[in-house]
Amino acid sequence: MNEMSKARDNLPQRLLDYVVFQDYSLYSHIDQAIWRYIMKISLPFFMKNAHESYISGLEMIGIPLDRIPKVDEMDKKLDAYKWGAVTVKGFIPPIIFMEFLSRRVLPIAVDMRTLEHITYTPAPDIIHETAGHAPIIANTDYADYLCAYGEVAKKAIQSKHDSELYKIIKKMSDMKEDPNVSKVELKNIELELENKSSESHWTSEANELARMNWWTIEYGLIGELNRPKIYGAGLLSSVSESLDCLDKKVKKIPISIECIHQDYNITEPQPQLYVANNFKDLIKILDDYSKTMGFKNGGEDGVKKAIRSENVTTALYDSGLQISGIIKNYISDNNGEITYLSYDKNVQLSYDNNEIPSHGIDYHSEGYGAAIGKLSHFEKPIHQLNKNQLNSLGIKNNSQVSLEFIGGLTIKGSIKKIVEHGGKPIIITMENTNVNIMGDHLFKPEWGTYDLACGGEIISIFGGPADWNKYYKNSLKSKKEKYQSTNLTTENIELNKLYNKVQQLKKNNSLSEKYLPILNELYNNYPDDWLLCMEIYEIIISDSAIEKEINQLLDHINGFKKDEKLKDTIHRGLQIIG
User: Fold this and answer.
1) pLDDT bracket for residue 474 (50, 70, 90)
2) In this structure, what DSSP letter does residue 50 have?
3) Lowest-pLDDT range, 11-20, 204-213, 334-343, 428-437?
4) Cβ-Cβ contacts under 8 Å for 487 (sequence gap 6 or more)
5) I want to staple 228 with a disulfide (CB 3.0 to 4.6 A). Which of 16, 215, 221, 295 is the partner?
6) How far apart (Å, rounded) are the C-alpha atoms in residues 206 and 159?
7) What angle do CA 171, 172, 174 make, to 5 degrees?
8) pLDDT at position 17, please?
9) Dihedrals φ, ψ of 187, to 5°?
């Protein structure tokens, strides 16, 4: 077994289920040429315009300039910074991505962009993750922000709309990188995304944090407002936008917590970008935002967010009990305090993020009613009562009880079982139970067994279930995915051989004349391929014996500048070659 970073070695199974194997042999010679070219034209630019940590970070994190990185090698290098790296397939669920970051592991999309998308790819790829995200992890302050962001974002409440939008974006990005997808299919998915994006919806915590991610981790600038440097991975991995973002046409705004209100469009260049003074500023902004979130505040505000999300959240009681599911509504008592939560189907009860035996979604498949509050007799929640107080109320197995809560909630029934943690009750299972408040019946004996949640208040509400593996047991993968796509097709397989042949000729210091038959084949059979022409041009440019052929080649390359998407990319390459 290969040695790996401590961070990667400590990953739980639920994250390992998203890890794929990097089959390095699937990268084509064309893929390798795309990597080399992007790094060739990017490095001189970023030496002047990226944050100082970027250039040094390339070497420190183990990112080669002449070939696609091997993630296992990067992982070993990252271990020195108490980080690690794993390969994943394209878009993974946001909460999973954030948990990787919170554990100081960088998820790296294993696929490689095509030549058609050399300037920008709609899907995460190995260039974006390794040449974009990884180098600045060598900067301690930035690495701390990345980890802290993951820790906060994985607890964000995500709306049903967020989840549906993610699925569409993932599908669309995968389709755009699929050379076999039809134009009709692509048009349909783009229309689906447009319709879903335009729907009126609640702006969730996850949505606001996604904006913070976009304006910092992906598209962030740093330093002086009028002369900022680039640190965002989306800019560092985009050949075109990295150049355009520093133009005066793009408005520069000092970073603040207000960035969470600025939406973005992933398909268009950004009209404004945010500039941080330093990376510690980002941590301060993140901390300020986290203080507004349900996972830190709980209470009525957190419950309202959970209801508006229409999604799975977890309510943490002061007893330590965790209730995971979709909250339909809540009931307030005579004092205006929350005294009861009503959940939709599929509810899980947990403690310390571990599902309590016999309290999973199979058992609570029809929903759940969760009581909250203090008993009027002692003005304490049940879990805070001592043994004598519990006995005085008859809270023991096979005992009939009548419990009255401050505010008017009453619960009567026969105790069948008590689940304790640390000697304190957290769940009381009852039969023949009546739950009432102000004349309303919340639970009746004929409805079956009632499980009383013991807690006085909700101290935290966060997104997703407490015990992720057991809650989603039916949707977890049956085995670890070992999938990696290849850009090699029946249409480019012979062209790929020409790319390899050029590299072999270069390695053997072959005469310039050896490249001329390859050029003729490119002109005649692959008139749309400019990258191999550029590689040959760099090799033979100084050979005066074939000046005519070199000028012909240069004219051919310049012809591709008619495409506005390629104009700057090709121009930068020619400038470097000289």
Assistant:
1) low
2) B
3) 11-20
4) 28, 30, 31, 112, 114, 179
5) 221
6) 8
7) 65
8) 86
9) -65, -40
Extract the tokens encoding 209: 């944090």
pLDDT band at 165 (very low <50, low <70, confident <90, very high): confident
The single-letter code of the amino acid at 342 is: S
Cα dist. 484→129, 175, 344, 487, 501 in Å?
A: 16, 15, 38, 10, 25
Cα gap 375→406, rounded to integer Å: 6
Q: Is 393 exposed, middle or buried (0-12, 13-18, 19+ CB in 10 A)?
A: middle
Contact of 112 with 27, CB cutoff 8 Å: yes
DSSP-derived letter for residue 202 is -
Burial class (CB in 10 A: 0-12, 13-18, 19+), 320: middle
> How far is the C-alpha of 429 from the C-alpha of 205, rounded, in Å?
34
Task: Answer whether 466's CB lies under 8 Å from 324's CB.
Answer: yes
Spatial separation of the C-alpha atoms in residues 506 and 512, rounded to whole Å: 9
Task: Look up residue 78 and give its amino acid.
Answer: L
Q: Where are the beta strands (DSSP E) in 297-399?
A: 313-317, 321-325, 327-332, 338-343, 348-351, 354-355, 368-371
Contact 438, 410 (CB under 8 A): no
Contact (Cβ atoms closer than 8 angstroms) between residue 89 and residue 483: yes
Q: How far is CA 428 from CA 93, 349, 396, 397, 411, in A?
A: 35, 12, 9, 9, 11
Average per-residue pLDDT in the chain? 93
Residue 482: band (very low, low, confident or very high) from pLDDT cuts 50, 70, 90 = low
Rounded distance between C-alpha atoms, residue 481 and residue 368, angstroms? 35
Q: How far is Cα 355 from Cα 361, in angstroms, rounded to an integer?
A: 10
Q: Tell me the C-alpha distance between 486 and 284, whole Å.
A: 42
Which two three-digit tokens encode residue 30?
A: 């064309």
Locus of tokens 């279930």: 465
Rounded CA separation 174/155 (Å): 27
